Amino acid sequence: MDNDGAASEMSKSMFEAGPLSVSGVLKSALLKQRTQLLGGVLFAVVLPVLLRFDLLEMPLTSLSLNNTIIGATVAMTVGFFIFGRLASYPGTDGISYSVPVFMLSYGAVLVVFLFLRLDYSRYLFGSSFVLSVVWFTALAIVLTRIRSFRIGIVPGGETDRLPQLKNIIWQTLSEPKLPENRLDAMVADLRADFPPEWERFITETAIVGTPVYHVKQMYETLTGRVEIEHLSENTLGALNPNDVYLKFKRVADWLLAALVIVFGFIFLAAIAIVIRIESKGPVIFRQPRMGYGGKIFTLYKFRTMKMEDDTEGDSRQKAITLNNDARITRFGRFLRRTRIDELPQIINILRGEMSWIGPRPEAVPLSEWYERELPFYRYRHIVRPGISGWAQVMQGHVASTDEVLEKLHYDFYYIKNFSPWLDFLILLKTLRTVITGFGAR
């Protein structure tokens, strides 16, 4: 199995319905997808029907009832698979995303009902949506408590850092022999030189059915970061984003940006007025940034700093915004916390310079400095920069070289796992920050 396939399988087994080390038939059943789905159908589709109608007098021939049952089942099933897919990404427990996910699936079915003018029961359909959210939120909470993963570590190489990662029961092996307690997987630094007995043990472990993963695959799966130290470790082909999705995303980005300008014009104008009233200077801040393909473009933002200090000098120090920076205005602090200050970049999206989701573009002085200091930094320009990205929702604001290196690892993870699923997850995390301010740093 190649790296991408192995990482995907590891992610699926660890975050969806992997093996259980806790005894009990009920707990074991809850970890199976078919049990989760069947429970959802019974709780979110069958139950509201039984509560509304008498079992013996149920109008099974009612077209409205049948349409509602079919539609609710489809919506709940689609939501279930989206919910599980998002939960497979690192740092995502799934609990926070049940409402938006099922709003999406039930909303899509509702649009079909309205478009085709199909009769349906508003009560049953609405009840099914609410109960789906309740069921899968409760299920996510229960699974978080009962699910545990025991992973064996073959000593040697770079495996020493793995026990620092939480939510996993790590067991370092002292001899080339499987322990008495069952392992869900085993990890080893496959680049290290092992004695013959350890090599035979690793091979036999894989043959008998226990998954064996390279340390970097395991680290990537659990942290959401891809570390590249040598070009040979990850070929450019392995990290090239999906070309078909790139084209589809470009069209979707443009359409959404156009809609935001049309329907959000009054909101954007109100923000501009407040900025102008609070402090002197232009409403829009312009700055050269390094973008797609390594080309320089002008980025637009709502100005959040005092004009007398908000200059575009060549010094990289002026390009860095520190935590609690004194230059930030009071209203500007609110705009930055909710990331509303980024909205003028819809102009950059319409011009094809940016996307809604992608690695954040850096100021030119910073980008040139990072390219000198960090290996493969320039590779992040293989996709269009975004208003929000994986590094932003996982890490937040950075202001040091070490933090930038960590941010780069998140960017590589995004590029390697480039997909509509990951973009949708980033969108949900970003919306949560915009609405609540939680997660912004």
What does this entry look like structurally?
The protein has 441 residues and is an alpha/beta fold. It has three domains: 22-146, no CATH class; 150-223; 239-436, no CATH class. Helices cover 53% and strands 8% of the residues. The strands form three sheets. It has a four-stranded parallel beta sheet with strand order 2-1-3-4. A hairpin with a 5-residue loop joins β5 (284-290) and β6. The model is unreliable at 1-23 and 309-314 (pLDDT under 50).
How are the SSEs ordered, and which strands pair?
Elements: H1 3-15, H2 25-30, H3 33-52, H4 63-87, H5 98-116, H6 122-146, E1 150-153, E2 169-172, E3 185-188, H7 196-207, E4 212-214, H8 215-223, H9 236-239, H10 243-263, H11 265-278, E5 284-290, E6 296-302, H12 316-319, H13 330-338, H14 346-350, E7 355-357, H15 364-373, E8 386-388, H16 390-394, H17 401-416, H18 420-436
Parallel strand pairs: 1-2, 1-3, 3-4, 7-8
Antiparallel strand pairs: 5-6
Helix pairs in contact: 1-8, 3-4, 3-6, 4-5, 4-6, 5-6
Secondary-structure-based class equals alpha/beta
The count of domains is: 3
Strand line-up in the sheet with most strands: 2-1-3-4
| H-E string | HHHHHHEEEHEHHHHEEHHHEHEHHH
